[in-house]
Design goal:
Order of helices and strands: HEHEEHEHEHEHHHEEEEHHEEEEEEEE
Largest sheet: 6 strands, mixed
Number of strands: 18
CATH superfamily of the largest domain: Creatinase/methionine aminopeptidase superfamily
Strand content: 15-25%
Helix content: 25-40%
CATH topology of the largest domain: Creatine Amidinohydrolase
Low-confidence stretches: none
Number of domains: 2
Distance between the termini: 48 Å
């Protein structure tokens, strides 16, 4: 049991998130998935995979640079080639792996260090030597993502490469008790942010101002990365543009938001929809339908159910006015959540009928639905995050989403005043 969900300080008087257990459990799950594959090792450049395997993190600047990588072999300890002095820091303060696991190294940094510099071949030499010491240099080496020059340098060393994604997705599919607690806390932070957004929504506020305030509060409450905030209002709701703008909110606007951030490496994907100042019948109808599609999907989140059954309760592309499921992909959607935004299982009408996945206890995923309004400009977008328990779905996104909420200034008509007092 993990006590005091929502607390972040370690204490001596009750059991909270056990980070030592989290580190050990994640590494063992990755090793188990590797042992179940035909790969000898995996070389990981994706920062989410690196954090999962090594429990290290050196800032969001590293996320898109491929400036560090970890070798996870079938036997033996992981080896992380990290950015300069970060390796020394790990040797001092990351005792969950031996000091030899933490090594300084330089990658091609997505091609910024080309072949002429000798850097790609230097790294490939380090990888080859580590594999040779373990007797794994003849076995397939899985890669999750890399640049073409790094791939070529590994091939010049005679290494055979393969895809590491199935191994890491298999490892990350089922969440541990500590991972679920961190995902729950990440969602709790967004609960608070939506409370603030509700207070802010009124005519004259711009979408990007709401995004700025949301980011401020996210970081104040402990977020370590804000991956994206969608803020979409008025005629931008239909079709969904998936990005915020500098648009002014106006009376009668429908507005929806998506908050994607990370707490201790664990992400959210969490939509809510509001109206500004009032709601029309068309907006109410769209929200009601959007909620019904979402609730029908949540009800099916039970162990043993397959993802094609969830996709089947959602409207087809043609019903939404699109020519194909590819053209409206993501409007009715499900995806696993963890150290990455998109993990197993993925659910959509595009692929789930042909490739259904069985839902298992310990999966955590987001379900999101979208419904355009008949006025041609408004739309509703709602998303919930769900933990699969033996008894069924547990929703961890708690800001009210059952009904369409109206925000903004309350206006009082003169006809509602009797002797200068408001009559309700």
């Amino acid at each position: 049991m993990i006590a005091s969900r929502g607390a972040t300080m370690a204490v001596d008087w009750e059991q909270r998130v056990d980070f030592a257990r989290l580190r050990a459990d994640r590494l063992e799950r990755a090793r188990g998935a590797l042992r179940a594959s035909d790969l000898g090792a995996v070389l990981l450049f994706d920062q989410n995979n690196i954090r999962y395997v090594t429990s290290t993190h050196i800032g969001e600047w590293a996320r898109d640079k491929s400036a560090r990588c970890v070798l996870l072999p079938r036997t033996g300890d992981p080896v992380l080639w990290d950015f300069g002095s970060a390796a020394r820091h790990h040797q001092l303060y990351a005792p969950w792996l031996p000091e030899t696991s933490w090594r300084a190294g330089v990658t091609s940094m997505r091609g910024a260090m080309p072949r002429e510099t000798g850097v790609p071949d230097l790294l490939a030499g380090h990888v080859h030597e580590a594999l040779r010491e373990l007797g794994l240099e003849q076995e397939p080496l899985g890669l999750d993502l890399t640049d073409m020059e790094t791939l070529a340098s590994l091939h010049r060393r005679g290494l055979r490469t393969a895809d590491a994604a199935p191994v890491m997705q298999a490892a990350r599919k089922i969440k541990t008790v500590d991972e679920i607690a961190l995902l729950d806390h990440a969602a709790a932070i967004v609960d608070a942010v939506y409370e603030r957004i509700y207070e802010l929504l009124r005519p004259g506020v711009r979408e990007h101002e709401i995004v700025a305030e949301a980011q401020r509060l996210l970081f104040e409450l402990g977020s370590e990365q804000v991956e994206a905030i969608n803020a979409v209002s008025g005629d931008r709701c239909n079709p969904h543009p998936h990005v915020f703008s500098d648009r002014l909110l106006r009376p009668g606007d429908q507005a929806f938001f998506d908050i994607i951030h990370s707490f201790m490496g664990y992400r959210t994907c969490y939509y809510r929809t509001f109206c500004v100042g009032g709601a029309t019948p068309a907006q109410l109808d769209a929200y009601k339908q959007c909620r019904e599609w979402l609730d029908a999907a949540i009800e099916l989140v039970r162990p043993g159910v397959t993802t094609d059954r969830i996709a089947a309760v959602w409207p087809s592309a043609q019903e939404l006015g699109f020519p194909s499921e590819e053209a409206c992909f993501g409007l009715q959607f499900g995806h696993g959540l963890g150290v990455g935004l998109y993990e197993a299982p993925m659910i959509s009408r595009l692929h789930s009928f042909d490739d259904p996945v069985e839902i298992e206890v310990g999966m955590v995923f987001a379900l999101e639905t979208y419904c355009p309004a008949t006025d041609g400009r408004s739309a509703a977008r709602i998303e919930e995050e769900v933990v699969v328990t033996p008894e069924g779905p547990q929703v961890i996104t708690r800001f009210p989403g059952e009904d369409l909420l109206v925000a903004g200034r309350r206006y009082v008509r003169g006809a509602d005043l009797i002797d200068g007092k408001v009559v309700l």
